[in-house]
Structure formats: structure tokens, C-alpha cells
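[agent] plan:
  1. take the single chain provided in the ticket
  2. run structure prediction with default settings
  3. attach C-alpha cells to the ticket
  4. add a short note for the reviewer (M.T.)
[agent] executing step 1
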Amino acid sequence: MTTRKKQLTIHTRHGSYRAGIWRDAKSMTYGAEVLGFPEKVVTFGTSFADAKRMIKDAIELHCDCLIDERKLVLDDTGRVAGRIPKSRVLVPA
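[agent] step 2 finished; step 3 output follows
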């Protein structure tokens, strides 16, 4: 049995994102999920604070991967959260 998701804003180095955190009574853990990403980003922790730290790490790692794939990353406010470093931009020959 899970309880209702508590929604909160997670502030990361790549911007601010909405996440839901809930307690799973059966496994005695807290689950966390990013609500604004098209991809499913989910993690868990042994406490609410732990789940909050874990989802922040998951968001930052996911954004890092998207930036490495040269994809534009926007946070929930519409702010550009990542840019490709100029040294990695390919210039057509």
C-alpha cells in the first residue's frame, strides 16, 4: 500500500523540477519520481530526506546525459538548464 504522493520542487544545478515522493508501507521505503520529464525518472530512499537527495541526484545525472547527447534541457520554468560547451560544438567543414 502506498500513500499519496507529496509534490515538491527540487532545485538542482540544472534548474528546478517538480517531483513526487511517496511512502510505500509494504517495503518501508520512500519512492520518488520526476513529474515533468517525458522519460520516466524514478528512485527511492530509506527516508523522505534520503528520497529527496536521491531524486535530486537522478535529475542531475539525467540532465547530464541529455546534455552529453546534445539535447536541449529545459527546467519546469522553461529556463534552458544546460548548454553544450563551445569546445564540443561541431563546426561543419
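[agent] step 4 note for reviewer: The radius of gyration is 15 Å.
[agent] ticket updated
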